[in-house]
């Protein structure tokens, strides 16, 4: 019988054989001169006197976010550029793929760039999709196909553990959607058991070109492998016919039809039909990491997102609002936020509670800093996992999702600047992964995001308070609502002893850099 040491030795030997083929992908770039497309003409109609400004629309609900993507895909005339960390093979993932294939059938050039983290055992389906003459599909920072994935995390630690977390959807180089949503049921109100409170921003105007420039950097990176290079054995152009047949059968199912009807009758769809969409206008800049970040730990890289967003943190004078589902400030970040609070900046943070988070180990990294932040006067709020009946009905009809989890990634600086994107305030986002977001100079958007913050913390979150017992020991209490009534908890709400113990033990491990 092989012992544990023997298993490790075998993995090391097998790992030594794992490699990637030469990347023979050819360069391509965003299509220019697309102002005569349908979306380009629509932008000219909307911009009015905002000749040099970009237009923005917050996509606050999952139904609005998916509807926006579908309508943009249906309105594409020349190109769709898609970049995502994850595209699930669930209902919304299949509907999304269907929209891309239909656009490609009309002659639209589709470039689809997906990080490899969530693509295990999906090469056959991706290769079939890429067999379409108008679809080019690339996998970013791929795992070797010569061995199973699990040992690669150990053997290639520091390489495959660093991922492309960017999320953008750009049509005809005229309109783009950037934000926190991946493509999957939980992001678009199609999961009966989980509702991610997420946010995207739909943008038109000059800022779209900056998103396209970033996309091209990733698309032409040596880390972006055409699926055909990774799996030349899977090329099957005839398989597209079978895919279309299966898509037609899938779309005819009652459960799919029900979701499509909810999209069709959503408030966002009604606004589109009535031509009632109102954009906010302002100057903006795309802030994105260069793909070379994954091959270097130079955090001061001139074109990194961190270096570009840093001045906005440093120039705060009145108020700072943070939406971050995975919030691990570290010692330096905690000190910075505490100093802001002490000099009079009103710092308020909304993140996930232990009950609402989908990544418990990240909560362990965050929890160790709660006392220091509260001690400095920083306001902490944590999402309430449990939605009551009225909240479920408001989110998705009579059934609704039973669990809420924050996934929004946004910062509001002094009610003047708003950042919306894929960036969490944790070491993984700042150091390990690549990210993208849009910084908008708009008091209108800033006020809207502040209102969103206030409404969320008032009805769907716990307010944390620092107290001392009679012996002087500091304790945290959670103030929130349960079944419509105010309640105070003295331990992480809606969690059991063993869950809290496990998180407490994780806090002792030296793993913060990977959170």
What would the keywords be for this entry?
515 residues, alpha+beta, Endonuclease, Chain A, 2 domains, 18-stranded mixed beta sheet, 37% helix, globular
As for the number of domains, it is 2
Structural class: alpha+beta
The general outline is globular
Radius of gyration: 23 Å
Helix share bin: 25-40%
What's the CATH class of the largest domain, please? Alpha Beta
CATH topology of the largest domain: Endonuclease, Chain A
Distance between the termini: 36 Å
Given as residue ranges, the uncertain stretches (5+ residues, pLDDT < 50) are: 7-16, 394-401
Q: Which oligomerization state do the chains in this entry correspond to?
A: single chain
Question: Could you describe the largest sheet, including whether it forms a barrel?
Answer: 18 strands, mixed
Q: Report the CATH superfamily of the largest domain.
A: Endonuclease Chain A
Architecture of the largest domain, according to CATH?
Answer: 2-Layer Sandwich
The strand count comes to 20
Number of discrete helical segments: 19
Average pLDDT figure: 89
SS strand fraction = 15-25%
């Amino acid at each position: 019988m092989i012992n544990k040491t023997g298993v490790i030795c075998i993995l090391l030997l097998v790992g030594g054989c794992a490699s990637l083929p030469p990347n023979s992908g050819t360069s391509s770039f965003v299509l220019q001169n697309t102002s005569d497309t349908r979306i380009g003409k629509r932008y000219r109609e909307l911009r009015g006197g905002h000749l040099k400004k970009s237009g923005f629309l917050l996509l606050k609900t999952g139904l609005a976010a998916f509807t926006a993507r579908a309508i943009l895909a249906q309105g594409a005339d020349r190109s769709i550029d898609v970049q995502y960390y994850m595209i699930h093979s669930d209902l919304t993932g299949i509907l999304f793929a269907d929209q891309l294939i239909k656009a490609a059938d009309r002659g639209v050039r589709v470039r689809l760039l997906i990080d490899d983290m969530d693509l295990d055992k999906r090469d056959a389906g991706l290769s079939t999709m890429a067999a379409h003459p108008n679809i080019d599909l690339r996998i970013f920072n791929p795992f070797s196909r010569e061995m199973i994935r699990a040992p690669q995390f150990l053997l290639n630690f520091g390489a495959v553990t660093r991922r492309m977390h960017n999320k953008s959807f750009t049509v005809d180089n005229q309109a783009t959607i950037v934000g926190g949503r991946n493509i999957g049921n939980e992001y678009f109100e199609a999961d009966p058991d989980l509702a991610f409170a997420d946010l995207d921003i739909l943008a038109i105007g000059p800022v779209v070109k900056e998103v396209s420039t970033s996309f091209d950097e990733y698309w032409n990176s040596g880390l972006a492998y055409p699926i055909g290079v990774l799996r030349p054995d899977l090329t099957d152009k005839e398989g597209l016919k079978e895919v279309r047949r299966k898509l037609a059968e899938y779309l005819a199912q009652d459960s799919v039809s029900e979701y499509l009807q909810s999209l069709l009758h959503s408030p966002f769809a009604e606004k589109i039909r009535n031509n009632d969409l109102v954009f906010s206008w302002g100057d903006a800049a795309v802030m994105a990491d260069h793909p070379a970040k994954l091959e270097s730990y130079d955090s001061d890289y001139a074109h990194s997102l961190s270096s570009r967003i840093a001045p906005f943190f440093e120039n705060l004078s009145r108020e700072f609002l943070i939406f971050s589902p995975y919030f691990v400030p570290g010692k330096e970040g905690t000190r910075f936020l505490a100093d802001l609070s002490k000099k009079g900046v009103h710092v308020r943070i909304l993140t996930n509670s232990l009950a609402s988070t989908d990544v418990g180990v990240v909560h362990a990294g965050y929890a160790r800093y709660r006392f220091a932040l509260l001690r400095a006067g920083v306001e902490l709020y944590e999402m309430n996992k449990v939605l009551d009946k009225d909240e479920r009905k408001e989110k998705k009809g009579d059934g609704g999702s039973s669990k809420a989890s924050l996934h929004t990634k946004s910062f509001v600086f002094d009610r003047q600047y708003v950042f919306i994107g894929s960036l969490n305030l944790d070491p993984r986002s700042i150091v390990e992964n690549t990210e993208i977001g849009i910084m908008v100079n708009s008091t209108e958007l800033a006020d809207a995001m502040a209102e969103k913050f206030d409404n969320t913390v008032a009805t769907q979150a716990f307010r944390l308070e620092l107290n001392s017992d009679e012996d002087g020991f500091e304790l945290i209490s959670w103030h929130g609502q349960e079944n419509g009534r105010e309640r105070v908890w003295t331990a992480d709400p809606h969690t059991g002893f063993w869950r809290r113990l496990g998180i407490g033990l994780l806090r002792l491990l030296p793993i913060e850099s990977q959170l």
